[in-house]
Design brief:
The protein is α/β, with parallel strands linked by helices and 639 residues long. The chain is globular, with a radius of gyration of 25 Å. Strands 17-11-10-7-12-16-13-14-15-30 form a ten-stranded mixed beta sheet, with helices on both faces. Strands 24-28-23-20-21-22-29 form a seven-stranded parallel beta sheet. It has a six-stranded parallel beta sheet with strand order 19-35-34-33-31-32. A hairpin with a 2-residue loop joins strand 3 and strand 4 (17-18).
């Protein structure tokens, strides 16, 4: 149970743990507005000067590439990034409650002023538009430098709010890099906010865990989707009514010599391609033997029962030679042993290709022998230092003197902040949320998805140190190797995090979903009272459960189980959708699945366009008919 302000919100418990479903701001009977965290119940706070960072993005459905492989924006409907709408609403509410002000800030071409105009209509007092041809081609670090420079030029600010990430790129790097450049602490994924004097109290939503923390102003805060209701002005024609004097354009010359844009970006984007997934969309009426046999035939034809492609397990040899090709360093997140092992295996593979060695930077070592088997040739141990900011600063000092060839980190809240801060301090290129890594001409090439996986780009770093965060479950499992002694360097640090963590609890394990071969997706067509029945079927298949946003909004499952644009993307061998209508916001998150089976009683629902085969039937009848035969087939697969 989590208490949000004066209202207790109870969660429905499942086998995945209890998840708190938090409401956004609501209206009190006395006419005032209750902001998340019930700031009105705290002692008075002085007027705050707040900046809300916003981004303009195209709609997913209209996204297309031009002949040059770049995203076409001309003629497309552009709008305010979904997470940024929460930052604007939160900033305006907090400004109103403290008698302060909220100013919107964006970087983009002249046409991007529409998001500032919309923000002003939502309550911002003004807009700052960082716009100049010199900013073209900015990657996240160049963007962060320009935004930070604009904030410094027009500050000071008590609070900088931004979306947790942009739904087109989903890297989450800009908030952390802006915070690092401004030398400010960062609260990631705020689900509740409460100000008490000069202290911010927050409940943070981190992947599969909740963190209750506090920090003193000034601070950068990235906003979770359910922090509050989004700001939105539905009539675009209203944007033109905003007084143009309320928007200040900031050119490159006003921010200094730079370099800006592509010249200041330590990453370059290579070939970009659209991944069109061909789904047959075959619909079968009913759940009789004929229909079930046809589903099995489709699964056979698509290799759903073939385990030969599952990660190799044969043992590989330890590296030979001096290992002077460079180090591939893995940032080990505390208590994430599975992700650490996955990254170590990848680091060892990359290191072997460059004639180098794999190293792990970690606080606590649980099993030295296992680390050696997973690929570690060295451990950089920072005992007692676990905060993302402190780890980044500690390693930045080390890497300034002994630069590695590459640094890998998990695409988690912790990993994204640690890697983004480290890259900002080192001036290193950072590819976010990579789903593939390879060596080409002695350089690291990362495959970066965008727009929920519809786009995949090859990204390389021009900096000496190359960095990437890696989506959990996207890379092959490690291949064990003989164990051997390896070096351990102990790094000393006196730094302490400015974020004071009061409580930290995990209500799930996102690795379970990320690595699952079979996933059953649950939509609103399943009544919460019947969720146990779906769970039982999933258990029979050895499958994991995921859900649509509306299901996690209702608290039926933890948010760590949410799949879609504002949730996770998954790629199981088999995905079974039950009670799901097939809206784009969810189905884009399962486009990487090997085979998709749908069960829905509506023969005209959108789900069929995303399925390989489906049963037009009640989900109870569909699962009852399919699960026993699927379980038998899975159990008979050669291992």
């Amino acid at each position: 149970m989590v208490v949000s302000g004066d209202q207790e919100v109870l969660a429905v418990e499942t086998r995945h743990g209890a998840n708190a479903s938090h409401a956004g701001p609501t209206d009190r009977q006395d006419g005032t507005r209750r902001y998340v965290g019930a700031m009105a119940d705290s002692r008075p706070t002085s007027a705050l000067r707040i900046a809300a960072l916003v981004k303009q993005i195209p709609k997913f459905e209209e996204m297309r590439l031009g002949p040059d492989g770049r995203l076409v924006r001309d003629g497309m409907e552009l709008h305010l990034n979904d997470y940024c709408r929460r930052a604007v609403r939160a900033g305006c509410d907090l400004a109103a409650e403290t008698g302060g002000s909220c100013t919107a800030l964006t970087l983009g071409p002249p046409s991007a002023d529409t998001v500032l105009r919309e923000a002003i209509l939502c309550g911002c007092e003004a807009g700052l538009h960082v716009s100049d041809p010199a900013f073209a081609g900015s990657d996240t670090l160049a963007t962060s430098r320009a935004l930070a420079a604009a904030l410094e030029a027009h500050g000071p600010w008590d609070l900088v709010l931004c979306g947790r990430n942009s739904v087109d790129a989903d890297t989450g790097q800009v908030p952390a890099q802006v915070a690092e450049i401004l030398k400010l602490p960062l609260l990631t994924g705020a689900r509740e906010l409460r100000l008490d004097g000069g202290t911010v109290h927050a409940l943070l939503e981190h992947d599969d865990e909740w963190v209750r923390a506090e920090v003193d102003l000034p601070v950068v805060v990235s906003c979770a989707e359910r922090l509050c209701e989004p700001c939105k002005v539905k009539e675009p024609e209203a944007w033109a009514t905003v007084n143009e004097n309320l928007v200040t354009v900031i050119g490159a010359a006003a921010l200094g010599d730079g370099p800006w844009g592509a010249d200041g970006s330590p990453t370059t984007v290579g070939p970009v391609r659209v991944l069109e997934v061909d789904r047959a969309g075959e619909r079968l009426n009913g759940t009789g033997p004929e229909q079930v046999d046809r589903v099995l035939q489709v699964l056979d034809n698509r290799g759903a029962f073939d385990r030969t492609a599952v990660g190799a397990t044969s043992e590989v040899a330890r590296p030979e030679g001096a290992g002077d090709g460079g180090e591939v360093v893995v940032l080990g997140e505390p208590d994430r042993l599975s992700q650490t092992g996955e990254l170590l295996g990848t680091a060892a593979r990359l290191a072997a290709e460059i004639g180098g060695r794999a190293a792990l930077a970690v606080d606590t070592v649980v099993d030295w022998e296992k680390l050696s088997s997973q690929g570690a040739d060295k451990v950089l141990r920072h005992r007692g230092v676990t905060g993302a900011e402190d780890v980044a600063h500690l390693l930045a000092d080390r890497f300034a003197d002994q630069p590695p060839w590459a640094v890998l980190a998990p695409s988690t809240a912790w990993g994204r902040e640690a890697a983004a801060r480290l890259a900002a301090r080192l001036g290193a290129g950072l590819t976010g949320d990579a789903v593939g890594l390879e060596v080409r001409d002695g350089r690291l090439v990362a495959l970066k998805p965008a727009f929920g996986g519809r786009l995949v780009a090859e990204v390389t770093c021009t900096s000496r140190i190359q960095m990437a965060t890696v989506r959990p479950g996207s890379l092959p499992g490690y291949r064990p190797r003989p164990t051997a002694p390896f070096a351990a360097d102990h790094l000393a640090s006196t730094g302490t995090s400015r974020i004071r963590v009061l409580e930290q609890r995990r209500d799930d394990d996102r690795d379970l979903l990320a690595h699952a071969e079979v996933v059953v997706g649950v939509g609103q067509g399943v009544d919460p009272a019947d969720l146990a029945e779906v769970e039982a079927h999933a258990a029979t298949l050895g499958a994991e459960l995921c859900a649509t946003r509306k299901v996690t909004d209702a608290g039926w499952m933890p948010r760590a189980r949410q799949v879609g644009i504002t949730g996770h993307s998954i790629a199981p061998r088999l995905y079974i959708a039950v009670g799901i209508s097939g809206r784009f916001n969810h189905t884009i998150g399962v486009r990487g699945a090997g085979t998709i089976v749908g069960i829905n009683p509506d023969p005209e629902c959108e789900l069929w366009a995303w399925c390989d085969v489906g049963l037009v039937a009640d989900w109870r009848d569909g699962l009852a008919a399919l699960v026993p035969v699927l379980a038998e087939r899975f159990s008979s697969r050669p291992s």
